[in-house]
Structure of Fungal specific transcription factor domain-containing protein:
Amino acid sequence: MESQTGSGVQPSLRGGDQQLVVRACDMCRKKKIRCEPTVQGCAQCTKYRTRCHFTPIAMKRKPRRPAGFKYIAQLEERLVALERSQVDQSTVPGNSPRDEQTTSATALVTSNPWMPMGEPQIPLPRQTSWPHPASELQPLSLPARQQLPSKAVALELVKETFNNYNRFLPLFDEEDFLREFHLKYSTSNPEDASWWACLNVVLSIAHRLRGLRALDPTHENNLAGVYIQNALGVVSELNVASISAVQALVGMACILQGTPNPEPASMLVGAALRLAQALNMHREVSDPALTHKQSEIRRRVFWKVYVLDKDVSLRTCRPFSQDDDDMDVRLPSNTSLGSCNVDLFNHSIGLAVIQGQVYKQLYSIRAGRQTEAQRAVAAHELSTLLWYWKSSAQLEPPEDSLMLSGSQVAGEMIHKVVLRLTYIHCLSMIDRHLPPTVQPSPDQELSPSGLLLPGSLCLAESRKAIRLIEALPHGDSSCVWMLLHSFFAAASRILHNLTQNPTSPNALSDLHLLKPFLRLLETLAKDPRTYSRSEELRRMHRTCNDLHNEAHKAVHLFSLESTEFFE
């Protein structure tokens, strides 16, 4: 027997990075059978009485690498590349990340569907993507801030906001804001993030209001975009629970509602509501440290973000952030606190409460598990509740006022138009869950009590809503984007009725009535930047085109058959 057999079962000799491995004898390796070494030789060779010889095999083996070594190597490469890029940037004068960072929201705010592609725009983003639906929230450097106007010009803008917008939708207290304005304006900078954001929000709103009255709102829209960019630059710094931080976030959300994408506004509303809850603003607390005025300001700010929360929830069909069962704050009171129209604001709050119930009872996951009959019962109850709200809100302004040109509609009238269209959107969301059997023909519009039945009510209100397009300032896109979903809901209801009832005597007039809205959709869809950025617009455009083609064929087919019949 060879000497190798006595060196162990599997002798191995190591030299440097070489390893001598003996796994099987020559005969077993040749026959490709299992080798079972023993002291006298392997079991197979002993059994067949053959010569058992082990030939050591030299194999080169590298040291075993630790787990995750590839990931560590990638991190090292990225670190080296980052250090190299920083060195390169430091050698180029004036090259700073802060000079390149802007926000995508600026492009959204300044987008105007009626503006030619060659018009000057606020610079588009290169790095910073907040607030953008597809981005992750990461700590960002502040964008290059734009210079504020002179104090006299800024004071005019501030007063314009408080004399118009804030009077109907109270977000700031005028006395407190002006006190801070005179104390801090000359030294305003992003270091005081809450004040900086609030100031720029007020300036942006003022330029938006001026744009509503201008024949060419491009300049005012660009200035509004500049100031909202300043405010958005400190969003990541608004993480301290203070009422001014809540006001800033709510103000930015209000402005971003008038953009093609509702997602940024939704995220800002959620952040504002979390800060408000951290301040216990959703509770009616009796804190001796708070004066009556401070308590009233807290209520108004909370209810403002509450209204936005419910509106965005029903618009996107996503859960709201504030449940009605987890709050007990009182409604704003009609006190001498400024010149606010509390009645109009409280009507907005009442509608927001109903909007929350519509989502909860008809569009939530729990509602989806119920039967159609159960949702229909809930829809009937909500329709009745909404009718009572409309009766108390008195949303029937004179028809002549609604037909004014866009440049003349301002002040309280524009806020009533917005509230009315919000009501119509809510009504259409309820109407979708009413069974077809309760939706009567146009000739049967009155119930025995003299009230419009639910199906006919939604159809009649939808016709009124489409007519309101003429009352909006077409030169400014913010109003259009903010209310586009309401117009779409009304147009969809009319088109659905035409496909189901092409014999209606109002069929041809309804098709003619929808032409301004369809032209508006086509105008918006022609801008490739807007069309690619707004998923909501793409969905509306496709749906309305399909419904309009179907309704047009049905109505004209019936008209042709009627003509042939009489001939």
